[in-house]
Write a structure and sequence with these properties.
33% of the residues lie in helices and 10% in strands. By secondary structure, the chain is an alpha+beta fold.
Length: 96
């Protein structure tokens, strides 16, 4: 008698738009952190960002290029000091 090998059932489902956006954002976050490390630039999360820092990356497009002091909610946002924001923006247009 031979043993039967059952293969796992693989189900494929389509990712929702929200899931794709979240995956892309997390990919962008990795690139952002790598850029910051390579350029020795400090970055901040929503919680620890100084009020005058600028949002460089966020799940909410309307938060990008806005000072932390003007934002009420965290949308998985990352911030840079103003002096580094322009350099980040120039080098990473269309990061997603």
């Amino acid at each position: 008698m031979t043993a039967r090998h059952s293969s796992p059932i693989v189900t494929h489902r389509r990712q929702s738009q929200a899931e794709r956006e979240k995956r892309q954002h997390h990919s962008d976050v990795r690139k952002f952190k790598q850029w910051c490390t390579e350029n020795q630039v400090a970055y901040y999360t929503f919680k620890d960002a100084p009020p005058d820092s600028i949002c460089a990356l966020s799940m909410d497009d309307y938060s990008i290029n806005v000072r932390r002091s003007l934002l009420d909610e965290d949308h998985e946002s990352y911030f840079l000091h103003e002096e580094y924001y322009e350099e980040w923006e120039e080098q990473n247009i269309g990061i997603s």
